Structure formats: structure tokens, C-alpha cells
Give the backbone structure.
Amino acid sequence: MTAAIPALSHRLRPVLAMICLAAASVLTPAPALARGPDGIADVAEQVIDAVVNISTSQTVEAKGLGGGGGGAMPQLPPGSPFEEFFDDFFKNRRGPGAGPKGGDRGGDKNGELQPRKTNSLGSGFIVDAAGIVVTNNHVIADADEINVIMNDGSKFKAELVGVDKKTDLAVLKFKPTKPLVAVKFGDSDKLRLGEWVVAIGNPFSLGGTVTAGIVSARNRDISSGPYDNYIQTDAAINRGNSGGPLFNLEGEVIGVNTLIISPSGGSIGIGFAVPSKTVVGVVNQLRQFGELRRGWLGVRIQQVTDEIAESLNIKPARGALIAGVEDKGPAKPAGIEPGDVVVKFDGKDIKEPKDLSRVVADTAVGKEVEVVIIRKSAEETKKVTLGRLEDTEKAVQAAAKKDEPAEKPVTQKALGLDLATLSKDLRSRYKIKDNVKGVIITNVDGASDAAEKHLSPGEVIVEVAQEAVSNAADVKKRVEQLKKDGKKSVLLLVANSDGELRFVALGVQ
């Protein structure tokens, strides 16, 4: 058998040669770009000392575990590998002094529970060698004590400079005892889809960890706040990475890692970072004022749908539709009115309502800006001096209404709606404020376009095709005229009982 092997090998030599050549071609190292850029290691080495861990503690009221709990379970960072272990350990353990049902420990000699401290960990990064750190607000929210832990393990007590809950950002400061490495911000507006990025943070409390990926999307709105404009990346971001930096290959911070989408709590390649353009403005204001001072236009806006655009003769559908104007806001004296569509603000194009919200918020309070609107198919330019957006909402108290004798409403039918002229009885029945003028909806046909657009009894039609109406006959007359003019839809300005306005476009049959 053994003697036959050399002869067999000799006969198979050409075949084996071809196999070896094929294997050689398969095993040839892939081009560098296929493996990722070589610069990742250089970036990590350059910036790693500027990335810090954020440790917080908070005193909370102790709560009983009940059942077989043998004491209060320590607060672990979300996603910690020890979370399940401690959960089982404390829920199934009876400690000394436990009651007949395995009562809680941590109480005083009378059995009363005492407050305890909880700890959490996140990430952050140094933006000023004087000891200025940026992180997420949710990392330090409600903390009694905040500590910054450097890459070499040194620990410093930090103070809170300021927070912005709407962008989930916070600025801290501490007194360094040695020179620090600080990082610079890059321009997130220059990011391209597919561009390589590097995330560094403190996932699962493991300490400084480097991951890499690409920019999956830009300007991502995930409805987490009024100014959503996230960078999406597939670089691994996990619990504990919150507040950590997202770098480009120049070693510049182009985002702050804030959110992930994951059914398991671990990375599935969908992470979100606040873009550096937003971060820079927030950080500068927090350092200067300790708070955010956002611009305020004093309007309520909504989407310009295809139907609304057709009603207003706007092609293509774009901009932000003004649904209401605050009486004491900056827009009113500038001549901006409900029904106007903002298409440009301070030289920036407005494609949708979110664009206007972001650019107004980012504009300095007191600045005079040009606002380009479309009104009755023509562009106009208005000059507005921005006010300041106040975060505290003022309570609105409704005036007491007196009982009035019932009046029989005169109704009309149009657009799948039963309409009636507003009377004192109807105001009282639907609790409509005195300053709301127009024609009230008393019934909606469930099979109509109006029902699909969520119109409901008690709402008031203020305008039809941008003309005010005061009685039900006015509405029916305007709708009939629009049908004769060949219009496919009619634009209604509708108010709720509190006077809040919105535009609704209904098909004309």
C-alpha cells in the first residue's frame, strides 16, 4: 500500500499543481480597501487618550425585592455580562436577617429600608485641554456625583456645565493634574455615504474600545426629538458607548454616539450619532451661557402634501406650511400668515418642516433674517427678527362659560361633512373658545376623504381655499365654485376647540 503512494502522487502531480495554483489565487491577500483603511489604527492611537469613561452615582430610595430577595441588587450598567448572574443571585438568596418571606436587607434595626447608591457608566471625550468634556445628557442625568476616568485609569471629579435635553448633549468640566489630549470637531456636512468612521467608547463597561464601520445614512429622523438629524453608522455601538465620539479618518469628531436600534441590546449594525455641526453649536452655547438659547419664529408648521401643494399651485411639493402664527411671536409683525409656505430661511432651502425647525433653532436670537414664502402662487420675501424659544410652556386657562339657551343649528352638507354656523349652544356643547371663528363640523361620513384625514365633529373650518368663511352656506358655495373651476381638491384651514390650526386638503367629487 505504501509503495503505491509515490506512483499515485506522480500521476496526480498535474492535477495537484492546478489545485495549488487555484488555492494560491484564492489565498492572495485582498486589496487594502477591501479590508478597511490602514488609517484606522493611526486614528485610534492619535485620539484614544482623549476618550474618557464617565462614571456617575445617584442616591435612590430603596425598594423591596419581595419574594426570596436577599438584599438590594446592585445597579449594573445596562447590558453588563454580570447582569443576569446578579439578578439570579439576589432574587434567589436569603440573607441573614431575612424575614419569613425572605424580606429585603439594607434596612435599619427597625427593618426600615435605607436609601442606596446606584452607579452607571458611559463615555465622553475631551474637547479642551483645560478639562472640558462632552457626553450625552442621559449618561449623567440625575447624577449626584460625576467622575471622569482617563484612559490610563486616573479619576477626576467633574462638574456639570450645562445640558440640552432636546439634543441629549451635556458638557462637563474637571481640573486636570497633567497635560491632556483634546480632539477637534470636523465638518459633518462633508460626510459621504460609505465613508469610513471610527467609534471609541466604553461598551458594556469594558473600557476604551475601538470599532470601525461606514456612514450608512445621513440626516436620519427617527422621531426621538424635535431636531433629529442623526448620522447612521454600522460601526459597532453598544450600551456604554453613549456619549462617545465618532471619528473620521482625519481624527476629527464628526458625531456623538447616542442611540442604537437593537432587539437584544447589542449592536446589530444600526447606530446613531448626533452630527458635529449640531454638537458644536450646543457645546459653544452651554460653555458660554450654561443653557441653550434657540431662535424662535413663532409659528406652527405642517407638511406640504401633494394634495395641499396642488391646492396652492406649488410644484413640486416642498417647504413648510404655516398652520398658525403666534400673536406675540416674531412672525406676526413681519407679515407672515397662515397658508404661507416657507421655502427658504436665511439663505437655506427648506424642503420639509423639519428643515425649518432645525435652521430656526440654530439661528442666533435677535438676528434679522430673510424668509422666502409662497403666497397665492407667488414668492415674497419677509424680514424677521428672531425671538428666543422658551422651553417652559405657559398654561392656558379657559374662561368660564355661561349656560345659554339652545339654538337649532342650520346645517349644510359638503365634502362628506355636516356643517353648521357656530352658535352659542354649539360653542358650549363642543367647548369651543370664543376667539375661534368659522363653521363647525357636526358629523363626518365614515366613508369620506374627510374621515381618512381625521376630521371630527367639534372642529371648526376657518377658511376654504384661503378665504374666511362664517356660515355653512359659505363653505358649500366655495366648494361648488371650486368644482366648476376644475379643482381636484380643496384646502381647508381647520381649528380645534382651543384654536390650534392645521391645513387639510380634501378631494372634490
